[in-house]
Specification:
Helix content: over 70%
Number of strands: 0
Number of domains: 2
CATH superfamily of the largest domain: Tetratricopeptide repeat domain
Number of helices: 8
Strand content: under 5%
């Protein structure tokens, strides 16, 4: 003997997928009679009510079950929406990836140009380029490190201290940071000791 859920699935399949609502009606009635205390009985009664309205007005499209090969039109619409959403997210992530790659490339170029400017003795251009690198990728520590080193080399200790703090925020575990702070402290003490 079939269970209430098995009968309900069979009736639903006949009604909504195959369009045979007359046979489905008989099965819905069987469910209501044989399983009076089941959830399926309540569902079957809802379908029976719809079928009664359909019998009275067979051309009413709102009462017709929506059928399509392999599923419903609503299911296709949901699947299409999900696919479009996944595609949009994938394109967004891909765009973000390429944008970040271009930012990293720009950052590296600014750091290299700053180092070249510093090596040829153009300190102000080097400082400007390091600051631009910091603005390009604020979370990257190299811009802060090279600017702090430049300020220390030019004996601008207060500015070097500020940049070392920003460097520490960007990369607190950088082993070069503690060594830099010792050199900065030594330079400050040397300045105090000199007449």
């Amino acid at each position: 003997m079939a269970t209430a859920i098995e009968l309900y699935r069979k009736a639903y399949d006949l009604d909504y997928r195959k369009g045979d609502w007359q046979t489905a009606e008989e099965i819905y009635r069987q469910i209501a009679e044989k399983f009076p205390y089941s959830d399926e009985k309540e569902y079957a009664l809802v379908h029976l009510e719809r079928i009664e309205k359909l019998r009275a007005n067979p051309r009413d499209q709102r009462l017709q079950p929506v059928r399509a090969e392999g599923g419903t039109v609503g299911g296709f619409a949901v699947l299409s929406f999900v696919l479009v959403l996944v595609l949009a997210v994938a394109l967004g992530l891909l765009g973000y990836f390429f944008w970040m790659q271009s930012r990293h490339t720009e950052y590296q170029d600014l750091i290299l140009q700053g180092m070249l400017s510093e090596n040829i003795g153009n300190q102000s251009t080097a400082a400007t380029l390091y600051k631009q690198a910091q603005e390009t990728l604020p979370g990257e520590p190299l811009g802060y490190r090279f600017l702090a080193e430049l300020y220390l080399k030019n004996d601008e200790l207060k500015l070097a201290e500020i940049e070392s703090r920003r460097w520490a925020v960007a990369n607190p575990y950088d082993p070069g940071l503690s060594e830099f702070k010792m050199r900065l402290k030594a330079a400050a003490q040397g300045r105090e000791e000199s007449p």
